[in-house]
Amino acid sequence: MSIELPVITDEQVEVLLSDLLEYYGYDFTGYSRASLKRRILRLYSLDKIPGFAEFRYKIKSEHGYFKRFVEQITVNVTEMFRDPLFFKTLRNEVLPKLGTYPFIRIWVAGCSTGEEAYSISILLKELNLLHKSLIYATDLNPVVLEKAAQSMFAMSQMKQYSENYISSGGTNDFSSYYTANYSLAKFNEELKSKIIFSTHNLVSDHSFNEFQLILCRNVLIYFDRDLQHKVLALFDDSLEGLGYLALGTKETLDFSQISKSYKRLPGEKIWRKTN
Known about the structure:
Blueprint: H1 10-24, H2 33-46, H3 52-61, H4 63-73, H5 84-98, E1 104-109, H6 115-126, E2 133-139, H7 142-149, E3 152-154, H8 158-167, E4 178-181, E5 184-187, H9 189-192, E6 195-199, E7 211-216, H10 225-238, E8 239-247, E9 262-264, E10 270-273
């Protein structure tokens, strides 16, 4: 007997997106439809929803389920010192230049559960810059931010994170940055003390500060071209002259309206604002 897969039509996806906008102010209309639909279908079959009308009603009427829905359709895949060569470039080239500033403001946009923000905090500490830095770590999803603010990650991840850290040029004992607590690793308070976690919606919220470094890695790939341009313009507004913008491995500034004002560093997806 073949199992019938649940079917949600493109029109129904649009209905859900307009519900989210109308009831909760969450605007997903610029997200890539293919990846949204994949995630919605996955959740729909995972939770064994009997029909689309029930699914829609559940999202509209149960705040807890709405939070689950947002959590499932926003992508939260991350690890500490992911792409170690990228972090090596930050360590050797970008952060030492920013070290000449009296104060360093960094924005990690789409920070998910916070691994990247803590990685940056470790780099700043090792370069003796943490005392004069602030990291703003933002995400659309309040559930992942709550997790990020606890500064606790699975012990089972630490071997991988430690290997990434060493490949990125780290020379300390990685375990000196956390205390083991049963199955969890709790990262030192000092690292967290310079991170501000807050919700920010790249689609609808405005610039909120001037930064010398903005990281938004592997978020733009889920947006359509128009929304990518809009978000890049937001970053441009938020970045000081000579500041740095870092994107994910499959993302680029080429073809964007702001590309003329930026020069790419060799090797990595990091651009420096030239004006």
